[in-house]
Amino acid sequence: MATPWIAPSILSADFARLGEEVDAVTAAGADLIHFDVMDNHYVPNLTVGPMVCEALRKHGVKAPIDVHLMVRPVDRIVPDFAAAGAGYITFHPEATEHIDRTIELIREHGCRPGLAFNPATPLEYLDYTLEKLDLVLIMSVNPGFGGQRFIPSALCKLEQVRQRIQASGREVRLEIDGGVKVENIQAIARAGADTFVAGSAIFGSPDYAATLRAMREQIALK
């Protein structure tokens, strides 16, 4: 399995001090920065766009940026995020008319493609896409808002995706997003995740480095 990565979600950061917040979590040991992009159409909330990604790059952020698109349609915004400095771009199969075309579009623009699964989205989409993906994202909350409680059935879904990845023989990261915290990250890692998105658990803590360290300790115990 790949080296575990922890990805603080800027959705829970202080937006008045966003550059400083991202600097702080990367200095504390974050592996990548997670962008939750919402359009108030595919999900009932409105967050950030490519300009914020570009601004962080201009600010000097060097860490990989992991963009999770909760938007419909998807293809129009992919080139903009790629140009703004995204590394991974993940989208939902329900949000595009042509999943394969969107995967290819992301790769054509120099980014690593990922596919995201809501709690009730079936994994059968992976039957025809896994060989083209670099990341699979399992949502352990219904997308739209930060600070929600972890949905336990996501653990079973992680196990199933991990089995698919192992059978494929490819290196595909398995990401979890929603309600991840120190208290449950060990069970999540045991189920097969290797990339952990955490928002309020990190940005809501008084010591980012201590929280990241505690998370890594729990992951190592799996």
> What is the β-strand count?
8
Structural class: alpha/beta
What value does the average pLDDT take?
96
Hey, roughly how much beta strand do the residues contain? 15-25%
Strand order of the largest sheet: 1-8-7-6-5-4-3-2
> Main sheet, how many strands, which sense, barrel?
8 strands, parallel
Write the layout of secondary structure elements.
Layout lengths: L4 E4 L9 H10 L5 E6 L11 H10 L5 E6 L7 H7 L3 E4 L7 H10 L3 E6 L17 E5 L14 H15 L4 E5 L7 H6 L4 E4 L1 H4 L4 H13 L2
Helix pairs in contact: 2-3
What does this structure look like?
With 222 residues, the protein is an alpha/beta fold. The chain has a single domain (5-220), classed as Aldolase class I (TIM Barrel, Alpha-Beta Barrel). The chain contains eight helices and eight strands, in the order βαβαβαβαββαβαβαα. The protein has helices spanning 18-27, 50-59, 78-84, 99-108, 154-168, 185-190, 200-203, 208-220; strands spanning 5-8, 33-38, 65-70, 88-91, 112-117, 135-139, 173-177, 195-198. Strands 1-8-7-6-5-4-3-2 form an eight-stranded parallel β-sheet. Helix 3 links the parallel strand 3 (65-70) and strand 4 (88-91). The longest helix is centred in the C-terminal third of the chain and has 15 residues, at 154-168. The protein starts with a strand and ends with a helix.
